[in-house]
């Protein structure tokens, strides 16, 4: 295994132990954590979320990756469909894109009007202040990737049948919007960066380094959370271990792995 990969695996294992402790702390303290991951297409949002949640209790986190709003949702207050995904006591919620779609993707692709964009930019700092005033820990990350690196990732997805699903029509159209999205991103950060909800930018040209740096930073932003994870002591098994005999009415899947 290359030295770089060994470092990544070792570092990630250590961080996942800390994330498990964070999971435990959120539950015991009833605190709420909201992590927003934004960035260009193919920046690495999904892989980062998997790295964060891989060793977490599935009951302690949720992932919010909302699709295009339907007709009813489009008629609602813009933030309404996001509010229902906010964390409850003891939870962490990770947004794979968030309400900030309206700050970058929607205006770049023509999916919202100028008045809608302006209204959002004026409202979002106050909206996020309400969240943090209510005790939600809010962390906002922009995953930064250069256009050359983005193009390489798009090309790899285009030629890999297992990753075709990651290439949407919007992804392909966004390739021509690199500069415009950069301008919209800068406007977003300048107008929505607040002491109660600052933006953090992470270099994701190397996705593995980016994940490690982001997770380390995330853990550093949380109040004391080094709560010990209780060790589970298994009771002594009575008798000899049993072989599982399943009723003959069930059909066994054949073992095709060989020796």
TrEMBL record:
Known EC number: 2.7.4.-
Molecular function (Gene Ontology), one example: polyphosphate kinase activity
Domain annotation Polyphosphate kinase-2-related: ranges: 5-226
Keywords: Kinase, Transferase
Principal EC category: transferase
Gene3D superfamilies: P-loop containing nucleotide triphosphate hydrolases
Function: Uses inorganic polyphosphate (polyP) as a donor to convert GDP to GTP or ADP to ATP.
Family: Belongs to the polyphosphate kinase 2 (PPK2) family. Class I subfamily.
Complex formation: Homotetramer.
Protein name per Swiss-Prot or TrEMBL: ADP/GDP-polyphosphate phosphotransferase
Species name: Dyella halodurans
């Amino acid at each position: 295994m290359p030295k770089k990969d060994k470092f990544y695996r070792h570092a990630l294992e250590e961080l996942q132990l800390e994330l498990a402790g964070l999971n435990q702390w959120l539950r015991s303290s009833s605190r709420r954590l909201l992590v927003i991951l934004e960035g260009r297409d193919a920046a690495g949002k999904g892989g980062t979320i998997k790295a964060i949640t891989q060793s977490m209790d599935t009951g302690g986190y949720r992932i919010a990756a909302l699709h295009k709003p339907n007709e009813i949702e489009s008629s609602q207050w813009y933030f309404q469909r996001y509010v229902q995904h906010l964390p409850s006591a003891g939870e962490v919620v990770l947004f794979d894109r968030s309400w900030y779609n309206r700050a970058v993707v929607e205006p770049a692709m023509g999916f919202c009007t100028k008045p809608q964009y302006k209204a959002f930019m004026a409202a979002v700092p106050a909206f996020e202040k309400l969240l943090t005033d209510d005790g939600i820990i809010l962390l906002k990350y922009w995953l930064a990737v250069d256009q050359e690196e983005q193009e390489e990732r798009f090309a790899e997805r285009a030629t890999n049948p297992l990753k075709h699903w990651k290439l949407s029509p919007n992804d392909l159209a966004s390739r021509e919007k690199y500069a415009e999205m950069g301008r919209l991103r800068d406007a977003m950060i300048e107008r929505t960066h607040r002491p109660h909800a600052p933006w953090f930018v992470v270099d994701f040209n190397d996705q593995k380094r980016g994940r490690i740096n982001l997770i380390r930073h995330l853990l550093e932003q949380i109040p004391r959370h080094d709560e010990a994870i209780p060790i589970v002591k298994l009771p002594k098994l009575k008798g000899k271990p049993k072989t599982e005999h399943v009723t003959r009415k069930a059909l066994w899947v054949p073992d095709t792995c060989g020796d």
